């Protein structure tokens, strides 16, 4: 995409531009000049950030560039172009999506499920082409929402959904919010005037999990899988909302490409599928460039498909198989299409992550905020290597919408490490003996009447002392997301509650250890461990304490935002709703909930009690921690949390040394995605290698304020510690 020299040049330009402000710009010509330079560098930084996940400037610097461009464009609107980076989010609401005819029909793929199917496909290809051995390119089959993009004279002019394959919906404003899709690209360098590209819009698995957690928290129905989340997001009416969903797009096929004389370039100037992917990669698109493999003959294809099936879970995106394509594009013209699929390609589908099973019973669980969740007990069934025996039915509306009954046969999906989900009821299998699900009107734990506030989908128990809620809240306080007290899981909290040891959160710090050690299953050692874990929790960062308080709508992400803006947790009692709303991403509903929480005497009492018991409620004064004293670190591969420079800065800050070359003296090699040769060298020298996740765990509680904005811990969550992907 960029040569080293070009990159150096763009970084130089960035530095110059960062020194400018609007008032330095005196003439129209100068403005035009600067605007063009800004666009050029912003495109480069978008590519580093979104495509490579390896930015070279901080978010703050990026925002400065972006705002300068925005300010100049509003001063000189005549210089606004449709491909300017500022034009990604349209301000207008899209009312409905107009229909558009695709340049070429969006067909499906033929499917195969085993080796025999693949051999049969290969036999047909050899027969039709007369070749002895066929060269195939093999790449993942992305499980998202299919799109078609059209670029004309280097500008993105249209993005559409598949629709019925002939006519799709024009969703250009939403497509433009996807940062991995360039708004302009130099196709003209390849002699291309008009091009149509196919791709898939996806939501990364970890972001999907987070989105669903938030939706549940807000009483909304979660999405079944990342595909539905991506497709649903693409069809939102407001592009601003779409932008928040952080969608990405992989492009995997050029389906139409002509020059200015309308000559077809596929199979002539662009000779192979691999070359097509290379061009798209080079122009800054996100493609399966690293994942793609050229295989000679079907045996190599089969091996590669098996290899990917085994590493499917570790891949950050949902894939449901591999796509095998004849590499030589001139053969595509010979092989042609059926009305359903191209004859030059086939999908190899992985084992399904769905299964049908019977609902044996439904129980109702009370959560820490009092929400009552129906949970179906299932006849145990294996899905993707895991035995599933229960599934959340989410809420009453979900049950009614899908008409779920006890005794029903249901189709259950478990995508990756996502919680299982009922996709549908197999109504054809009904015998007439199925029983409707009765939603309780009283709390199954304390018996008090349940309430359903207007506009919400969830029934709640509003008795704050309800035993089920109390146990859930204490267990959540101790959980990994909050205060991370190892050894104080839900079943132990429940037992201690029943024994009267734990009635409220502060009791955690007053546990009667002398009694506990005589309980069945406990002893000196286990009590010692629990005591140690509880002691350690007193010094957690304050966002963990805020999370652990179970304030409605305040999960880990919001807790972090709050923590950034306060010194002590108890200070929140003095914040007005208006002030809370000024914190980015905190809207009225969340602000109101926080306000209510900190205006409740009981809650404040809990916080002061915790403080008295030694729990840290204020941020520590910036104290330098020398945790890496004398340790030598080397990094290899792409990190997701931050740039390598930032990671090195943290190592140095914490008293260690960061170096670029590995030797026997190196203490740790931190391995990112697509590691280089340093990994082999480390293994040869016996140097300890750790993944990014482990590195983050070491540093996460010690990141100094000034580096916090440059490092994104969330980005590393859900990432495999040792990447399994092929090196570049
Ligand atoms: S090639 C003529 N490559 O799977 C172009 N499709 O189930 C044929 N898909 O409609 C498509 N990953 O939406 C191709 N690497 C990939 C793909 C892929 C996902 C989708 C695509 C297609 C569907 C068929």
Overview of the molecule:
The strands form seven sheets. The protein has a five-stranded mixed β-sheet with strand order 2-11-10-3-9, with helices on both faces. The chain has a five-stranded antiparallel β-sheet with strand order 14-13-12-16-17. Helix 2 packs antiparallel against helix 3 and helix 13 packs across helix 14. The chain is 35% helix and 18% strand. The longest helix has 24 residues. The protein folds into six domains: 84 residues, Orthogonal Bundle (Helix Hairpins); 239 residues, D-amino Acid Aminotransferase, Chain A, domain 1 (2-Layer Sandwich), CATH 3.30.470; 83 residues, Beta Barrel (OB fold (Dihydrolipoamide Acetyltransferase, E2P)); 71 residues, 5' to 3' exonuclease, C-terminal subdomain (DNA polymerase, domain 1); 71 residues, DNA polymerase, domain 1 (Orthogonal Bundle), CATH 1.10.150; 94 residues, BRCT domain (Rossmann fold, 3-Layer(aba) Sandwich), CATH 3.40.50. It starts with a helix and ends in a 20-residue tail after the last helix. It contains 25 helices and 24 strands. With 728 residues, the protein is of the alpha+beta class. Bound molecules: 2-(butylsulfanyl)adenosine. The site of 2-(butylsulfanyl)adenosine has 16 residues, from strand 3, strand 7, strand 8 and strand 11.
């Amino acid at each position: 995409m960029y040569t080293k020299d070009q990159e150096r040049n763009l970084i130089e330009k960035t530095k110059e531009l960062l020194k400018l402000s609007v008032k330095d710009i005196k003439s129209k010509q100068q403005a035009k000049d600067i605007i063009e330079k800004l666009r050029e560098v912003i495109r480069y930084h978008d590519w580093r950030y979104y495509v490579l996940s390896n930015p070279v400037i901080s978010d703050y610097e990026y925002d400065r560039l972006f705002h300068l461009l925005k300010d100049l464009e509003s001063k000189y609107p005549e210089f606004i172009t449709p491909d300017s980076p500022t034009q990604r989010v349209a301000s207008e609401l899209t009312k409905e999506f107009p229909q558009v005819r695709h340049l070429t029909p969006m067909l499906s793929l033929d499917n195969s499920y085993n080796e025999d199917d693949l051999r049969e496909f290969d036999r047909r290809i050899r027969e039709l082409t007369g070749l002895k051995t066929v060269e195939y390119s093999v790449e993942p089959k992305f499980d998202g929402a299919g799109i078609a993009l059209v670029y004309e004279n280097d500008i993105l002019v249209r993005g559409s959904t598949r629709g019925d394959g002939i006519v799709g919906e024009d969703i250009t404003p939403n497509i433009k919010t996807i940062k991995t899709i360039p708004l302009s690209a130099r196709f003209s360098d390849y002699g291309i005037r008009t091009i149509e590209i196919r791709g898939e819009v996806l939501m990364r698995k970890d972001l999907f999990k987070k989105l669903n957690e938030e939706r549940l928290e807000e009483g909304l129905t979660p999405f079944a899988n990342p595909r539905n989340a991506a497709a649903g997001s693409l069809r939102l009416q407001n592009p601003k909302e779409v932008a928040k969903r952080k969608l990405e797009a992989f492009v995997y096929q050029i389906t139409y490409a002509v020059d200015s004389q309308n000559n077809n370039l596929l199979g002539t100037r662009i000779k192979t599928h691999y070359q097509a992917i290379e061009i798209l990669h080079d122009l800054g698109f996100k493609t399966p460039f690293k994942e793609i493999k050229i295989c000679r003959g079907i045996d190599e294809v089969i091996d590669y498909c098996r290899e990917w099936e085994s590493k499917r879970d570790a891949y950050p995106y949902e894939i449901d198989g591999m796509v095998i394509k004849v590499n030589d594009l001139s053969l595509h013209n010979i092989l042609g299409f059926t009305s359903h699929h191209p004859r030059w390609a086939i999908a190899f589908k992985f084992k399904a992550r769905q299964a049908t099973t019977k609902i044996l019973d439904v129980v109702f669980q009370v959560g820490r905020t009092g929400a009552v969740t129906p949970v179906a007990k299932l006849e145990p069934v294996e899905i993707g290597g895991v035995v599933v025996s229960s599934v959340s039915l989410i809420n009453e509306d979900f049950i009614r919408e899908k008409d779920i009954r006890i005794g029903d046969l249901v189709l259950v999906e478990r995508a990756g490490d996502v919680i299982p989900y009922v996709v549908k009821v197999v109504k054809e299998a009904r015998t007439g003996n199925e029983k409707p699900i009765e939603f309780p009107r009283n709390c199954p734990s304390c018996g008090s009447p349940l309430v359903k506030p207007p506009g919400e989908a969830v029934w709640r128990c509003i008795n704050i002392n309800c035993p089920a809620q109390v146990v859930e809240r204490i267990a959540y306080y101790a959980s990994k997301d909050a205060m991370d007290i190892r050894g104080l899981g839900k079943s132990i909290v429940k037992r201690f509650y029943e024994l009267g040891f734990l009635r409220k959160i502060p009791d955690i710090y007053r546990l009667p250890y002398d009694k506990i050690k005589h309980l069945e299953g406990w002893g000196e050692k286990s009590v010692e461990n629990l005591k140690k874990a509880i002691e350690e929790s007193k010094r957690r960062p304050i966002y963990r304490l805020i999370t652990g308080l179970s304030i409605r709508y305040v999960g880990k992400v919001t807790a972090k935002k709050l923590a950034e803006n306060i010194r002590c947790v108890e200070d929140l009692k003095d914040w007005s709703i208006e002030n809370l709303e000024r914190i980015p991403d905190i809207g009225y509903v969340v602000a109101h909930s926080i306000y209510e929480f900190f205006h409740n005497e009981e809650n404040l009492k809990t916080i002061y009690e915790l403080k008295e018991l030694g729990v840290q409620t204020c941020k520590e004064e910036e104290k330098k921690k020398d945790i890496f004293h004398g340790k030598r670190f080397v990094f290899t591969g792409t990190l997701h949390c931050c740039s390598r420079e930032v990671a090195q800065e943290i190592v140095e800050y914490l008293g260690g040394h960061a170096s670029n070359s590995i030797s026997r003296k190196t203490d740790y090699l931190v391995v990112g995605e697509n590691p280089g040769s340093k990994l082999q060298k480390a293994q040869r020298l016996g140097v300890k290698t750790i993944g990014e996740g482990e590195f983050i765990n070491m540093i996460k509680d010690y990141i100094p304020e000034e580096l916090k904005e440059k490092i994104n811990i969330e980005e590393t969550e859900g990432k495999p510690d040792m990447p399994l992907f092929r090196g570049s």
